[in-house]
Write a structure and sequence with these properties.
Length: 342
């Protein structure tokens, strides 16, 4: 199929601008599913958008009107964090008629903490200890509350009694929380692209998240922290670049390859396109993975003009959005689009 017959669609949020730009650069028509309230924002980038589908809420993306409209435009929908946050997974799996770039069945593994742990273990990644029994807490832990979005509502504690006291205050049952060893060190989020066309794993870029108010806390002198005991939040407000010591790259590739293999085994056909491993280096330089994302992450927005790593592979600016479009274009030309969509 000719790429000129296909449109690339996404929701107006998260990484939409780089997805649209990348699609345009590769010669695709573009479609933006846009909230009425954000028309003026995306209007500022109108040269990137061929068609706008206006909705009152992103949940409407699943409606037959929007699905039919996308189908009539021959669209492939690029999923990102906002699609997952505002549309429920069952709807994406069962009711979406428009083809989705990537393996939409992995999104559930990203969202469910137990499935996530299973995939990470199968991949052979080092993960922080998970405490199923609060009495065993013997060091700093991060307590992840059910339904906490964007890291809001997590808290830190270092003793069983502190975990319980805080849960009582919050009126949350012990059975519903995820208590994980807190890795004191440098967080790092590694953005990969796996190409089913070449069976190659590419390191696209990496970032650190700027999280408020966890990142603001270090500016308070210790005595003020003690006096005021501010509530902690890990709400992401932006991303900052990082490159790793070159000697650390081998390990991240090993983890990335492990995840690709594990995903092929557990959720065939496995990862397609972008995914991200999210973790931290401790004081000994050991990397612990506490999360993964099975789709493009917002940290790639730093690199719309390419990253140090893409520059090593591509002699042109290459963003994650453009890399996605390049893969779709190549698959169209080779008649292999089926390998990329679900
Ligand atoms: P998550 O919702 O799991 O992505 O976590 C949100 C943020 O909490 C991360 O970006 C980290 O800053 C922090 N975080 C989560 N889990 C851990 C951990 N086990 N050790 C250290 N920091 C963590």
């Amino acid at each position: 199929m000719s790429p000129s017959k296909i449109s690339i669609a996404t929701l107006g949020s998260h990484t939409a601008l780089q997805i649209l730009k990348g699609a345009k650069d590769e010669g695709f028509k573009t479609v933006l599913v846009c909230l009425k309230s954000r028309l003026s924002l995306y209007g500022r980038f109108k040269k990137l958008i061929d068609e706008i589908v206006v909705v009152d809420s992103f949940a409407e993306t699943a409606s037959s009107e929007v699905q039919d409209k996308l189908l009539s435009l021959n669209a492939i929908l690029i999923p990102h964090g906002s699609l997952i946050e505002y549309t429920d997974l069952e709807t994406i799996e069962k009711r979406f008629k428009v083809p989705i770039f990537g393996n939409k069945y992995i999104l559930r593994w990203e969202a469910d903490r137990n499935l996530k742990e299973r995939l990470l273990r199968e991949a052979g990644a080092r993960t922080p200890r998970v405490y199923t029994n609060i009495d065993e807490v013997d060091g700093v832990v991060i307590v992840k509350l059910p339904g906490a979005k964007g890291g809001r509502g997590y808290f830190l504690a270092s003793k069983p009694s502190d975990v319980r006291k805080k849960l009582e205050e919050l009126k949350i049952s012990e059975d519903h929380v995820f208590v994980q060893e807190y890795i004191l060190g440098v967080t790092s989020y590694i953005h990969f692209f796996y190409s089913p066309l070449t069976s190659e794993l590419e390191l696209i870029s990496m970032d650190r998240r700027y999280e408020t108010n966890a990142d603001g806390l270090g500016r308070l002198p210790a005595h003020i922290q003690v006096e005021t005991s501010p509530d902690l939040s890990f709400l992401v407000v932006g991303n900052i670049p990082i490159v790793l010591r070159e000697s650390l790259l081998e390990e991240v590739f090993r983890i990335g390859e492990g995840l690709v293999e594990a995903s092929k085994k557990l959720i065939p056909p496995g990862f397609i396109g972008p995914f991200c491993i999210e973790g931290a280096y401790d004081g000994e330089g050991k990397f612990y993975v506490f999360e993964f994302s099975a789709r493009i992450v917002a940290g790639t927005n730093i690199y719309i003009y390419g990253s140090p790593y893409t520059w090593l592979i591509y002699d042109e600016p290459m963003s994650m959005g453009k890399r996605i479009a390049r893969e779709i274009k190549r698959a169209c030309e080779e008649g292999k689009l089926d390998l990329l969509i679900t």
